[in-house]
Write a structure and sequence with these properties.
Radius of gyration: 20 Å
Largest sheet: 7 strands, mixed
CATH superfamily of the largest domain: Probable inorganic polyphosphate/atp-NAD kinase, domain 1
Strand order of the largest sheet: 3-2-1-4-5-19-6
Number of strands: 19
Shape: elongated
Strand content: 35-45%
CATH topology of the largest domain: Rossmann fold
CATH class of the largest domain: Alpha Beta
Number of helices: 6
Oligomer: single chain
């Protein structure tokens, strides 16, 4: 019996370059007797195709193939992690950290994965809530990071950080990145944080331009709960971003509560997947000038 029967295909929105490879992928899958559901993200790319909601993809599919870039996979992960649908990423641009199937290898690699030959990883997500005067303002998930940052130019934010209800420190900084191991190669890396293996159960806290030289990134256990409290007298317009996609404006006294999401993302790679090869290629380690 095939390990996967019904396959969802998710595309980067509004990218006409994807029309041809999407058509090739759907035709190939159907020739091999797979039921395919094209996600509504492909609207306008293949006019004759029936489109399906992300909820339908989550309910009916055994696998989802994401065609686009890391941002497209981040979006898919937030919507499908609860449904336990594994994802495969096909990158039609440059090599990505998450979407690692190259376009020239798309069909043979997909065939290999569909035959049951793949490397599977479990990637953690963060679940966040913003509270204001005891009222829930928003709740969001993120695969990469949750970022507190200024909405103004060059204005510091004043806030306290707690881990498991214990006070960690007070900070004056441009913000704070709370990152999963997956997100350690994103904003957290640019802010001076370490690269953390996706295999580790950890959460990373990286201050953004802190106003003290002793303030350094902290790595804590994945089961820890983080709370960030904005000072009541904080006058800097600030906001919190989830995977750089959804943002929420904050007010003085707001509380951001962050913990690891119980559901994990299932991410599939080709059998020859090598995390350190991805790092070398993306970060240009050892590149000769």
């Amino acid at each position: 019996m095939k390990p996967f029967q019904t396959i969802g295909v998710i595309a980067k929105r509004d990218d006409p370059r994807l029309a041809t490879p999407l058509a090739q992928l759907l035709e190939h899958l159907r020739e091999h007797a797979y039921e395919t559901l094209l996600d509504e993200s492909a609207e306008g790319l293949l006019p004759t195709e029936t489109l399906h909601s992300r909820a339908t993809i989550g309910q009916r599919c055994d696998l989802a193939i994401v065609v686009g870039g890391d941002g497209t996979l981040l979006n898919a992960s937030r919507s499908l992690a609860d449904d336990d649908v594994p994802l495969v990423g096909v990158n039609l641009g440059r090599l990505g950290f998450l979407v690692d199937v190259l376009p020239e290898r798309m069909l043979p690699v997909i065939d290999t994965i569909l035959a049951g030959h793949f490397v599977e990883e479990s990637r953690a997500l963060l679940h966040s809530e913003v509270w204001r005067d005891g009222t829930l303002v928003t709740r969001q998930d993120a695969l990469n990071d949750v970022v507190l940052h200024s909405h103004e130019v060059v204005r510091m934010i004043e806030f306290d950080t707690f881990v498991d209800h214990r006070f960690v420190n007070s900070q004056r900084a441009d913000g704070l990145v709370v990152s999963t191991p997956t997100g350690s190669t994103a904003y957290a890396l640019s802010a001076g944080g370490p690269v953390i293996s996706p295999a580790l159960a950890a959460i990373l806290l990286v201050p953004i331009c802190p106003h003290t030289l002793s303030n350094r990134p902290i790595v804590i256990g994945a089961q820890s709960q983080i709370e960030i409290v904005l000072y009541e007298q904080n006058q800097t317009a600030s906001q919190v971003a989830f995977d750089g996609h959804t943002t929420t404006r904050l007010q003085p006294g707001d509380r951001i509560r962050i913990r690891q999401k119980p559901a994990m993302l299932r991410l599939l790679h080709p059998p020859d997947y090598d995390h350190f090869h991805i790092l070398r290629a993306k970060l240009r380690w050892g590149e000769k000038h």
